[in-house]
Each structure stands twice: as C-alpha cells, then as structure tokens.
Write a structure and sequence with these properties.
- This protein is elongated.
- A hairpin with a 2-residue loop joins β1 and β2.
- It folds into three domains: about 130 residues, no CATH class; about 110 residues, no CATH class; about 90 residues, Herpes Virus-1.
- The protein is mainly alpha-helical and about 375 residues long.
- The chain binds zinc ion (ZN) (2 copies).
C-alpha cells in the first residue's frame, strides 16, 4: 500500500480525533503540490537538464514572520559539498545563479504551515497530558496516605502486569498491545477485586494511557509523514531540499515537546506513578525470600523475620547473615521493628496474611513435635 493511504488509514484506525487529523501533515494534498512543481519544471524545459545532470540545484531556506522564502541555487554538478558552506548572507551566494519557481513556494509554505499547526496542537496536548499524569500520581499518593489502604495489593499487581507488557512507543505505534493488557487484566480477575473508588481510579489510569498512546502515535505518524514528503519532493523534482528544509523547521518550529516524546510510556508511568507505590522487593527477608514477618532490625540495620533469625540462633549462628556483624545474640521479640510491621500490614495486607498463616502453622507443628506428636502423620484410631 502507498504511504499516503497507509498514513490516512492508520490515523483512522488509531481513533485519532478529527480535530487532530485536521491539523496533521496532509500528505496526499502535499503530493499534489509536488506534482505541480514537477509540471512547472517541465513547462519551463528545465527538467531534462536536471535529469541529465547538466545543472544541479540546491535549496536554501529562510523564514520571516511565518513566510518561507526558498532560494534555489545552481551549483556545479560535480560539487555537492560546496553548498553546505553557503550562507544566504554571504557574498559567495552572489556568484551562483538562482532559479526562481512559483509552485515550490506554495509547496514549502503549505508544509511549513501544516507543521507549525501540528506542533502547536501537540504542545497544548502535551500540557494536558502532563496534568493527567500528575493528577493520577496524586490519586495514587492519596490512596497510600489512607490508614486503611484499600486494594493496594491489586494495584501493585496491575502495575506489575503493566510493566511486563512493556508498552514502549519508541518501537510500536498502536493501541493493540494496550488493549491486550486490559484484556489480560480482565482474565486474571484482578479488576474485579477493586472496590468502587478504585475501579474509578482504574478508569482514570486507562484513560491516561489511552491518551498517551494516542498522542505518541499521532506525533510519530506525523514525523514519518513529514520526512517522507520532503524525501518525495527531492525524488520527484530532483532538486535538493531535505537538508536545509529540515534545518529550517527544526530551528523555527522547535518547541518543548521533550518530556513525553523522549520517553516511552512505560518510563513515564514508572517514574511518576509506580515508584510511589511501595514495592514488595524492598521488604523481603533475605533468609526466606518472602515478606519479613514480624521484622527484627539488627544493629547493622538489616532486617529479617523474627522466626528466621531464631532458627539461625538455634543453629549456633550469631552473625548477621548479610554483613556478618555479630549482633544476632540480641534477637528477641523485644526488638521488633513495630513501625515497619505496621507499615507492611497496611501496604502488603495479602502478603502479610499469607505469611502469618505459614508462620502460625510452623509454630503449631513445632509445639506438637515438642509434645511428641508427628504433625505430618495422619491421625488414626488404634
Ligand atoms: Zn524470613
Ligand atoms: Zn547486617
């Protein structure tokens, strides 16, 4: 399929808003304008000479008050490189002949205006997105500030799956991966665990991602269209415009589209949102590799489950298993890190509950064993 068609189809398929499409690069329309330049060269009888490389032309552009002035400078066919050194104000340019066309100005002005419109729109949209991201980050923070952190486990799971999906727009320009992520969430039933408020929060998260994807898709599509249309001009007219026109739009239309365009969605969500949420990895006991239950913090500041440390003590170990600091002998129920224990109960309620169950079973088994029962042998009546 030709690029013009693919481009229009993608804009449609990705549900880009109509008012955005209106302000995008109009590839097909610009292509028609290129044909007019080609026709003009033909009518003037210059096309043949250019095709046979008897003459060689290179563009130099300036823009003043949004009006583009292209100058088409004749250079010797065997010396492309000299044009790079020509500045429009220099006297060197006077030594070169110029070709004045009419239709080329129409094309470049149109392209310049379209690019400017598109950039202006993107700049506004980017500000809106930044607000959306900050707003969502604030909602996550509010959830964490509550004493009873409803659904925090479910959220952690959602974010973990989200990271696994690696929604990176620097490589892919479509919504299908994001839709696959949402479908996967529905399958794992994690969404059905969310209470009313949090379900609303998920809608916001969904909307945010959708908007981000749409923004980046649109931006990337336009970038490709712009590059292609400039290339097309050079290919069809055999005049050289790409280097200097790219320089012109980069210098005059450059705006601050750096925050979002430079990053993948994954990075944005990770930096601004997911990092606020406490991560289980930071609260694991290095001995049993699950959440530190009734955590004891040693003098060296390393922490472990109280039972894991007591078991070590029973084996005659008296040093911290991580740094070999000799503080283990002081381990008792008295030096529980209660603050951390409360924090973990609030932030990892499901993990703590599971660990408590395992812990309680171990204690019961040990007590039974001490009393002479084998807890693993089925009970039978003799
Ligand atoms: Zn442990
Ligand atoms: Zn230590």
């Amino acid at each position: 399929m030709k690029f013009g068609k693919t481009y229009e189809k993608t804009l449609q398929d990705e549900h880009i808003p109509t008012e955005w499409i209106d302000r995008s690069i109009h590839y097909k329309l610009l292509k028609k304008k290129i044909n007019q330049v080609v026709a003009e060269l033909h009518e003037r009888g210059i096309d043949q000479a250019i095709a046979e490389q008897h003459v060689n032309y290179v563009y130099k552009f300036t823009a003043n008050d949004k009006v583009v002035s292209p100058r088409l400078i004749e250079i010797s066919p065997d010396d492309d490189s000299e044009i790079d050194n020509i500045s429009l104000n220099s006297s060197v340019i006077q030594q070169h002949k110029e070709l004045i066309l009419n239709k080329d100005r129409v094309f470049f002005q149109e392209l310049y205006d379209q690019h400017r419109q598109m950039n202006k729109l993107m700049s506004l949209e980017e500000k809106k997105l930044e607000q959306l991201i900050a707003g969502f980050a604030a909602v996550v923070k509010k959830l964490l500030d509550q004493k009873k952190k409803k659904d925090v486990g479910a959220w952690r799971e959602i974010f973990a799956i989200y990271m696994e999906f690696k929604l990176d727009l620097s490589r892919e320009f479509n919504l299908s991966k994001f839709e696959a992520f949402v479908q996967h969430l529905q399958k794992t039933k994690v969404l059905s665990r969310l209470k009313k408020d949090n379900l609303k929060m998920f809608d916001t998260f969904h909307q945010l991602n959708y908007s981000l994807l749409q923004f980046l898709t649109f931006k990337n599509l336009n970038k490709v269209a712009l590059r292609k249309i400039i290339k097309k001009f050079d290919k069809n007219t055999l005049l050289k415009s790409s280097t200097d026109f790219t320089r012109l739009i980069e210098s005059t239309n450059s705006n601050q589209l750096t925050l979002i365009s430079g990053n993948s969605i994954e990075q944005i969500i990770c930096t601004d949102i997911i990092k606020i949420l406490p991560q289980l990895d930071d609260y694991l006991c290095p001995i049993c590799a699950s959440i530190a239950y009734k955590p004891i913090r040693l003098a060296c500041s390393h922490f472990f489950c109280v039972r894991c440390l007591i078991k070590l003590q029973r084996q005659g170990e008296n040093k911290c298993p991580l740094c070999r600091d000799p503080h283990l002998m002081y381990v008792t129920d008295q030096n529980l890190d209660t603050q951390m224990m409360v924090f973990m109960e609030e932030n990892f309620p499901e993990e703590v509950k599971l660990k408590r169950k395992i812990n309680d079973k171990e204690v019961t088994d040990e007590t039974l064993k001490a009393l002479g029962y084998n807890p693993n042998r089925p009970c039978c009546i003799m």
